[in-house]
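Quick bug: Glutamate synthase subunit beta output formatted oddly.
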Amino acid sequence: MGKVTGFQEFNRELPQKTPVAERVKNYNEFVGLYSDEKLNQQSARCMNCGIPFCHSGCPLGNVIPEFNDAVYRKNWDEAYQILSSTNNFPEFTGRICPAPCESACVLGINKPPVAIEEIEKHIIEVAYSKNMVKPVAPLIKTGKKVAVVGSGPAGLAAAAQLSKAGHTVTVYERDDRAGGLLRYGIPDFKLEKWVIDRRIQVMEEDGIVFKYNIEVGKTIPADELVRANDAVVLAGGSTIPRDLPIPGRHFKGVHFAMDFLKQQNKRVSSTSFEMEEIIANGKDVIVIGGGDTGSDCVGTSNRQGAASVKQFEVMVQPPEKRTAHMPWPTYPMVLKTTSSHEEGVDRFWGINTKEFLGDENGELRAIKVADVSWEIDVMGRPMKFSEVEGSEREIPCQRVFLAMGFVNPQFEGALQQLNVALDERKNVKAIEGKYRTNVSKVFAAGDMRRGQSLVVWAISEGREAARKVDEFLMGHSNLESKDAVN
Ligand code: FAD
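Here's what came back:
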């Protein structure tokens, strides 16, 4: 490594964030950039560890010590080449990845890990500023046509890789713009949308065609798409939200998180929407669900001027540090505090929602909850909960956002028309590593196959599925595989 003693000399530091009081006034990103000196020091913290577990901690197999070293030497071309050889979209992961690579960092055993995610973001931003991010499609085309259904990170990664292999790629998207949940799920304060537009422009220059406002299976029949192409990649995401079918679910004011988040994203981008407006301003908000979607509802509610924000989770509070049951270097299930939590929220753990209560006008006025205690198995995993006697109470609120995850992809439409087989969780059945469904020529990737997951996994699946499509079409593939890296 460039500076072998760097990890002893420098502490982990993250770029400055805009103070809470300022940043909640708008929807802009609020994490700054390192100075040149700080970036140099942070990359110097990557030590010459014998086995860099960060490679396997990252679902993309990012070659992290090598790009850290190139950053330390200020060799931006090399850093960008290394990073982009495994990750098509570091500008997304560098902003919103929970960074399993950092959990696997060897330095993290007894010191704070290398700030890999931030370094990644800096490499790609420098690469854009120095005009290094250019179309990569080969001059020789294969003459094969591939359709990609869905323009989330999985579909985009598949499209980018297939185009790189010389195939003619068309992406079909039912929304009016590309990005999937990056566009209309994740708020701008985590990922401003010009970041997606900038990438789509490069992909279009690459020759990839994007067709918007087309729902495959509705606007066009799915089998027609299969007939007209040599292969199809299904990357439609996991879009059916988990509901809470308890008494009072019908009261006005109880909404799915995605309905709330999507329309705020549309407001920020001045895009019209037809659904009833959902506004948290002046309301007492309760967010049910403790994951990324829940914390995005917290951040959005605070920006809209909610009177109060609470977040409920039925699970017990996770530990602050790894326990013996989550050994390094696996991704630890520890308490996550996101930037939205810094902005104001009361978090409650081990609490079960039993009923929504409304007034005579059908408006939500409170929820009835009770504390729960969990039976824990020998591995420390919560198995079954029971209500704590005498803990039932009402908590006043006028807005509830249900952020309890997504159960499976939408079956009606494309999947139904194609007769695609599903697995026991009702995701598209296509074995990991093969990505091929039961339908001839049809592959699947991302949340639609894997179930709800992370952006980094969606990109990884899109890349790996593209390689399998390329092998199917050409008999072999020269596209990179993460198995070759690690
Ligand atoms: P999606 O991103 O869901 O994209 C699927 C696309 O397919 C959509 O654009 C959809 O419109 C389109 N589509 C579906 N059916 C059709 C059809 N029939 N025809 C045409 N188009 C179709 N992950 C992280 O790593 N970090 C985070 O901070 C994070 N925050 C999140 C916040 C929220 C609110 C949510 C909901 C998720 C978050 N995630 C996060 C998870 C992450 O966004 C997903 O795992 C990832 O986007 C999945 O990518 P995908 O391409 O498989 O699907």
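Actually, after a second look the formatting is fine. The chain has a mean pLDDT of 94. Closing.
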